[in-house]
Design a protein that fits this description.
- By secondary structure, this protein is an all-beta fold.
- It has one helix at 87-91; strands spanning 13-20, 34-37, 43-48, 83-84, 98-102, 118-122, 125-128, 134-140, 148-154, 167-175, 182-190, 207-208, 230-238, 245-249, 252-257, 271-279, 306-314, 320-322, 327-330, 337-340, 353-356.
- Strands 4, 9, 12, 13, 14, 15, 17, 18, 20 and 21 form a ten-stranded mixed beta sheet that branches. The protein has a six-stranded antiparallel beta sheet with strand order 1-11-10-16-8-19, with no helix packed on it.
- A hairpin with a 6-residue loop joins strand 13 and strand 14.
- The longest helix is centred in the first third of the chain and has 5 residues, at 87-91.
- The two termini are 19 Å apart.
Amino acid sequence: MALHQCHRSNIACFMFLFIALVRSWSSKGFTYGMRLSTNDGDEIDCVDIYKQPAFDHPLLKNHTIQMKPNSFPSGLQATNSSKILKSWLKKIKCPKGTIPIQRTKAFNRRPVIPPIPNGKHSKGINYFIPPANYEFAQVATHVGRYYGARATFNIWLPNVVDPKESSVAQMWVLSGDRGELNAMEAGWESDGYQTTGCFNLDCPGFVQISGNYALGPVLEPTSTYGGSQYEIDVIIHKDTFNRNWWLNINGEEIGYWPRNLFTSLADSANVINIGGQVINNQYKGHHTTTQMGSGHFPNEGFGKAAYIGHISYVNNSSVLTDAIDLVRYAGRPACYDIIVGNDIELKLAGVHVFYGGLGFSNQCK
């Protein structure tokens, strides 16, 4: 199989959402409105907000759209000196009453895959059990009650060598054990999950209210080794009034997951995981050379290794709180690793981690 280079035409960084539910449904499609084209070649449809795919979900029949949250967590701190990604926001502006949806060709639609499972939660410990072919470098909170999470993701363009593989940086907001697991995920990934999942608005359930952001188009610019660093700030938080889960990106409310979509997440999450993930299909018979993060190991530090800053959770008083005493997990540190950082360049980033790796090497086979 030919090596896939990180060109914008095939592999790029995307913003994605993933919602994992216990129930299933079928999508009936939606009506397109005005179409926009970005400089990257993305086709964006401005769709009537009341005709978006969310309402294909049987649990959202006769759902009344909530146009803004009734509450927002207190304790939000400023971002660090790196550049919050702005160009993505500027590219898209749909008319009032519509939302931007990236056009997805029928042959690119994918079935739902399960979220990243956790093992049993006992005595306040999260026993992480990775599925086959998935490799992780992440940190996790201890088991508790969480009403949201925040992370600022440094954006890179890791090389992905197999179209059935992907490299992801994200947060997992989770509740339940194994078969009863509910999950919300948000972050960026390289590959677009063209063959590996169901994301963004492809699956009904997430109700988008923002007319400025489309979920799925290319994120750019990306960070460079020893050069400019770019990042995107992501917050998932629970509305304390009606209990819907909201997604906030760079300070803008994008939309929400209605509470009634969930079972174990209907009230609160019990674990938050944050970090990197690579699907390793043993390309060419050995460990993949698909990179995680910047493709460099965390000990190289700021500007060279990928970082995730402002790692925090929302407590039961709706206050963003630094996530201290994190549990570190790296399944194969010689391939991909993660460390909790103490870098002066990220002194305003609160709790932060460096993570990543290059995959196959003499130490990673």
